[in-house]
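ok new one. same drill as before - C-alpha cells go in, u give me an amino acid for every spot. 232 of them this time. try not to just spam alanines like last time pls lmao
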C-alpha cells in the first residue's frame, strides 16, 4: 500500500525524506492540496500519512480551506492506528487535530539549531534516532501546546515542543529533519524573497552554518526518516 503525502505549500515537498523512501522502495502518492487537489476523506488503501510544512499558519482556513480536511484525515489515520507524520506546519496541524492550542506569530526560529530529546524521546522507537541531540534545520514562528495524552519527545532552546507522539504511531515533529543540505540550499535560492525579510544576512551566514552543522543534521535526518518509515 502506498504512503499518502499532503503538500500544503509550493516547494515544501518530501525532499530528502522522499529520496530515502525511493531508495527503500516505498511507494507514495502526493496530494498537492495547496494547488486545489482534493484531500481524501479516509485512509483508504494507504499505509500511512505524511503532512508537510508550509508558510501559512495552522488556523488559516479562510485562505486555505483544505486545512480542516487535513486535520480530519489525520484523525482518521490515527483512529486506524496507521502511522502519521507531521512536519513543521504538519506538526501544528496534528496539534490542532487533537485539541492543542496553536500559538502564532512568535519570533522566528530559522537555521540550524540544537534539538534535545526528552527522557521519553531517548526511548521512543523513532526519536531515539536523535541520540543525545543535534543541530536540525528550523523555519517557523508558530508552535503548539502539548495535546492531552501526548508524549513530549524533544525541545529546543526557543521552542519547548519540538516533537511529540500521540498513541502508538502519530508523530508531530516541528524541525525540518526532511531537509538535507541540498534542500536547504534550494530553499535559500528559490525562496529568498521569503527568507531575506526576516533573516537578511542569511546569504552570508548560510555557508558557515552549513559547514558546522549540515553533516550531522543530514545524518540525523536520515536516521529519523528510516526509523519512521520502519513503522509502515
Amino acid at each position: 500500500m502506498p504512503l499518502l503525502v499532503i503538500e500544503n505549500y509550493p516547494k515544501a515537498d518530501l525532499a530528502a525524506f522522499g529520496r530515502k523512501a525511493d531508495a527503500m522502495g516505498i511507494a507514495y502518492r502526493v496530494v498537492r492540496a495547496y494547488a486545489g487537489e482534493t484531500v481524501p476523506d479516509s485512509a483508504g488503501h494507504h499505509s500511512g500519512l505524511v503532512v508537510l510544512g508550509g508558510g501559512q499558519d495552522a488556523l488559516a482556513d479562510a485562505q486555505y480551506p483544505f486545512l480542516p480536511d487535513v486535520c480530519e484525515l489525520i484523525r482518521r489515520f490515527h483512529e486506524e492506528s496507521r502511522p502519521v507524520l507531521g512536519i513543521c506546519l504538519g506538526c501544528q496541524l496534528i496539534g490542532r487535530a487533537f485539541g492543542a492550542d496553536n500559538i502564532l506569530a512568535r519570533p522566528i526560529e530559522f537555521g540550524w539549531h540544537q534539538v534535545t530529546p526528552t527522557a521519553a524521546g531517548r526511548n521512543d522507537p523513532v526519536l531515539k534516532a536523535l541520540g543525545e541531540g543535534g543541530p536540525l534545520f528550523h523555519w517557523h514562528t508558530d508552535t503548539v501546546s502539548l495535546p492531552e495524552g501526548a508524549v513530549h519527545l524533544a525541545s529546543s532552546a526557543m521552542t519547548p515542543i519540538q516533537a511529540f507522539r500521540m498513541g502508538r504511531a502519530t508523530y508531530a515533529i516541528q524541525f525540518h529533519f526532511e531537509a538535507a543540505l541540498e534542500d536547504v540550499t534550494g530553499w535559500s535560492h528559490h525562496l529568498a524573497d521569503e527568507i531575506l525579510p526576516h533573516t537578511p544576512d542569511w546569504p552570508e551566514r548560510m555557508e558557515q552554518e552549513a559547514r558546522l552543522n549540515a553533516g550531522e543534521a543530514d545524518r540525523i535526518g536520515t536516521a529519523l526518516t528510516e526509523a519512521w518509515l520502519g513503522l509502515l
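The chain has a mean pLDDT of 96. and btw Residues 127 and 163 are 8 Å apart (CA to CA).
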